[in-house]
Amino acid sequence: MTNIDPISARILRALREDGRISNLALADLVGLSPSACLRRVQDLERRGVIKGYRARLDPAQTGQDYVVYVAVGLSEHSKAAQEGFERAIMGFSEVTECHNIAGAFEYFLRVETANLTDYKTFHTDKLGTVPHVRSITSYMVMGSPKDTRS
Predict the structure, then answer these.
(1) How much is the pTM?
(2) Spatial contact of 78 and 37, defined as CB atoms under 8 Å apart
(3) Which pLDDT tens digit goes with each residue over 94-110?
(4) Distances (CA, A) of 4 to 11, 34, 36, 150
(5) Helix/strand/coil percent split, the chain, to 5
(6) CA contacts within 13 A on the Cβ side of 21
(7) Is residue 51 a contact partner of residue 93, using CB atoms and an 8 Å limit?
(8) How many whole angstroms separate alpha carbon 35 and alpha carbon 31?
(9) 136 - beta bridge partners?
(10) Is-contact 126 94, C-beta < 8 A?
(11) Which end of the chain has fewer CB atoms at under 10 Å, N or C?
(12) Which among 90, 83, 101 is positioned nearest to 127, based on CA atoms?
C-alpha cells in the first residue's frame, strides 16, 4: 500500500473533483508552491496512485442514457470460465464497468445503451451468448442523485 500524507490526500481529492484544475489553482488550494505541487502530482502519477485522467460524459448528450447494472452468475467457478467471460466482456462497447464480486453473483456490470430495445439486444445477442453465463439479473437505473465516479 502506498503512503498518502495529508497534503497528497488533499491533492487527490481536488483532482477527483476537477481533473483539469490548473497546477497554479491546485497549489493554491492545497497550500503549496506551484513547483512543489507539480512534483507531488508527478510523483503520484509515477507511483500509479493517479492512473489517468478522463472526461465525464453526459449520457443524455451522447445518446447512451439507458443505464443498467447487471449481476452475472457463471455456471462454472473456474479460472478458465472467469478469464473467458472477462475476455468476452472486453469486446462489448456497451459495458462501461466490469467488477468481479463476492456474493451470489460473480460479476457486476454497468451497461449503457440508447434505450430498452438496445439493452434487450445486448442482453440476448451478446451477454446471453457468452459461455458459462448462468444467470443475468438486470437493474435499470431510474435516477442518479449522487455519482462521484471520475
Answers:
(1) 0.82
(2) no
(3) 999 999 999 999 999 99
(4) 10, 19, 16, 19
(5) 40, 20, 40
(6) 21
(7) no
(8) 12
(9) 72
(10) yes
(11) N
(12) 90
